[in-house]
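Supplementary Methods S3. Input chains for the assembly prediction are listed below.
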Amino acid sequence: EAGVAQSPRYKIIEKRQSVAFWCNPISGHATLYWYQQILGQGPKLLIQFQNNGVVDDSQLPKDRFSAERLKGVDSTLKIQPAKLEDSAVYLCASSVGQGVLVNIQYFGAGTRLSVL
Amino acid sequence: GENVEQHPSTLSVQEGDSAVIKCTYSDSASNYFPWYKQELGKRPQLIIDIRSNVGEKKDQRIAVTLNKTAKHFSLHITETQPEDSAVYFCAAKGGNQFYFGTGTSLTVIP
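Predicted structure tokens for the full assembly:
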């Protein structure tokens, strides 16, 4: 079974620039998550999709972050404009279930973003 | 929302000894508790999980215990090996969302 694919693996940008990350979940997985993992901390959920609908985006800084999953498969996360504090690893994860049946999450390798 | 606390933040053990990592959670409705291992620069990997209707689960050298009354769960690694060195995260699932602990950096000294 292919895993969760993410690209790019690394990105270095200057503050106020824009950046986009891409995620392709495991085939058949309805739920897709974007997490931000700051060095030394646990993953923090940014947004969760169920198919192409948003389930939870309460911790997404909507003034600068946006995400979409138009066809219910792959997803993009964008930051515009980036700030220094956005430096982190952005992890994408997917799971097969829906609602309270969502259980095992499978993570991608992440995109390490450095904002200078 | 849910709040997950994890202790200790760092842990060093001699090879062959046991390691225990503890997490507490705040939402009594949380019903699923996975543990992830993350090696440096790699993705988090699920190593064991437990559901709220079970008190203990074991998989070879790894075990997890859950005390719903006290709202805490623990990861136990026995006969530790150098390849167990990594950061371990606990998580609690409440409703649709997963809440992660802050991680424990485990070092197994050969």
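Chain B has a mean pLDDT of 93. Chain B touches chain A at residues 4, 6, 31-32, 34, 36, 42-46, 49, 89, 91, 93, 95-103 (CB under 8 Å).
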